[in-house]
């Protein structure tokens, strides 16, 4: 196993919890980093959470090209299909909203839309995922919320609207994600330890409910390069690998070096490589062999706080950006070949 070292870093001021590289070839050098700060201010008896989203060009010294102020950021994802001819970043915020920002002609992000999922300002939008990773014609977004709700947002004329909404979990729904190979299917995980599948053609109807993880389910991602492969992660520090054709039991598990897991990201082109932001333990890269058995190949241990965000570059196959919370820092590093 290789231990990676930081190539460059940036102090984000506010706590950093999300890193997302732009997937488009002409903007693949751009990295968005989201932050979260709980303030002492109060509105309607709810403490105000502030956020900033930084835009970096990672081919240059790490000075932000742009800083966008929003409510606190919980999650971000780029759409893999153009929205009204724009490359769009979706941001999930701390007051139950989703913001869409698109590149303009000056390579700056400008606000396009905002969708409010709830009127209750105490409800956080905890995650979002786009259906368009493989199916470019499906531009829907799934979001999960701190009250356990799951929303499907869909484009309607010039804006996004709530297409469907249902109560998925009784505790915080930390994560929701599309099956990229069959976008009728959505997965969700929550603090109740439950991992659920949903068919969006009949909203609110589960296709399965499992409690395999020993603690809250925090992350999952469909493998964009390998059909039927899904990875899930949890506070229990274990990654489960699933064959979506037979969900009765995982095909493999991997016990990470600890810390709990917050984000899992499959490599953009290598179907056997998985990145984990493992909170208290750092960030890790796993490689699967022909039998889908995972092995730890790279660890990054420079974070001195909880590593919440991590993502792969779409331009440089080994480049990773990861960020951590209380030390409010983003690092760039390379996974081993």
List keywords for this structure.
337 residues; mainly beta; Methylamine Dehydrogenase, Chain H; five-stranded mixed sheet; four-stranded antiparallel sheet; 29 strands; globular
Summarize the structure.
WD repeats lie at residues 210-252. With 337 residues, the chain is mainly β. Helix content is 0%, strand content 54%.
String of helices and strands: EEEEEEEEEEEEEEEEEEEEEEEEEEEEE
The number of distinct helices, counting runs of at least 4 residues, comes to 0
Task: Compute the average pLDDT.
Answer: 96
Helix-strand makeup class: mainly beta
Helical coverage, percent range: under 10%
CATH top level assignment: Mainly Beta
The second-level CATH architecture is 7 Propeller
How far from one another are the termini? 11 Å
Sheet having the most strands: 5 strands, mixed
Shape: globular
Low-confidence stretches: none
